[in-house]
Amino acid sequence: MTATKTKTMTIEPVDATLGAVVTNIELANLDAQSWAELYAAFLTYGVLVFPEQHLTEQEQGDFARRFGQPEKLSPKQRGASVPISNRKADGSVAKPDEYQFQILRGNEGWHTDSTYMPLASKVAMLSAEVLPPADGETEFADMRAAWDALAPAQQQQLETLSAFHSLYYSQEQAGYHHATDNGYGLHDKGAPLRPLIKTHPETNRKSIYTGRHAYGIPGMDAQASKELLEDLLARACQSPRVYTHRWQVGDTVVWDNRCLMHRARPYDTNYPRVLRGTRIAGDPASEIAPTLPDPRATAL
Questions:
Q1: What is the 8-class DSSP label of residue 192?
Q2: Mean pLDDT of all residues in 37-54
Q3: Residues 6 or more apart from 295 whose CB is under 8 A from it?
Q4: Which of 72, 215, 276, 293 sits at 20 to 30 Å (Cα–Cα) from 5?
């Protein structure tokens, strides 16, 4: 695709099946026409990159609310966003035996935000504030194109399947065990059961809807379910369906959780990395899921 230019912005697609870089625009000063053009591009590309925005917390919150109601990711959260960071309140960096470190390491697996909650997220965004000297990218994978690449017989099979989603499960697979109410997502509301194939509520495009939180396909034994989900994920998240974002301070990135997956990439955790994150709650009509008891949920 070629770049789209308007009086106020340039939208330049990246070299992948998803993603575009948007320049010549100030997210803190969007008029109605610019917002309409941005939202149309968001639905088309799935992830939009806005360099050199340097949004304040208030400005990020105002931009986020254009997409819907922000989720509350922390009991201490007052605004629309929270730090996604290995830097602690005293300025030191989190250590491997600390919850903050372990959640961030878990996020290095491919996932969609909040699928382990009864109401999943529909949109998420990050703004870069402090970065390590190297690495620490964020990657995005186009699950629409991954669906399109499947053989018709496999599409037909997958459309009949669902899987449970649990943050307890995904963190255990990464080698970490957490108590109930130790943090966002570690709840006693049960494990949501979500279809493996999702139809986007606005574009009607189908996509693979799984990720590291998914497990336990009903009708399969645990090992067969795990092998199918891991194979599906590995084959889906491949070029040209992956965009790697190399952060610069001041970047803001927004993506559609209803059709993409993403993951953090490793970096030297002796250095702080601070991104400011906002998640937008999904529309109940399309993002809520029934839950069954999660045996991993335990009392503190």
A1: E
A2: 98
A3: none
A4: 276
> Other CB atoms closer than 10 Å to residue 193's CB: what's the count?
16
Q: Where are the alpha helices (DSSP H) in 129-175?
A: 143-148, 152-158, 167-173
What's the Cα-to-Cα distance from 112 to each of 142, 224, 261, rounded to whole Å? 11, 22, 5
Q: What is the 3-state secondary structure (H, E, C) of 102-117?
A: HHHHHCCCCECCCCCC
Q: Which residues pair with 139 in a beta bridge?
A: 244, 263
Q: Side-chain half-sphere of 68: how many Cα atoms within 13 Å?
A: 17
Residues 6+ apart with CB under 8 A from 75: none
Reported pTM:
0.95
Is the pLDDT score of 5 beyond 60?
no
Which domains does the chain possess? 4-282 (3.60.130.10)
Dihedral class, residue 135 (left if φ above 0, else alpha if ψ from -120 to 50, else beta): left
Q: Find all residues with CB under 8 Å of 281, minimum gap 6, and list them.
A: 68, 69, 70, 71, 119, 121, 122, 287
- Residue among 207, 202, 174 at smallest CA distance from 282: 202
Provide mean pLDDT across the span 116-127: 98
Strand 47-50 versus strand 20-23 pairing type: parallel
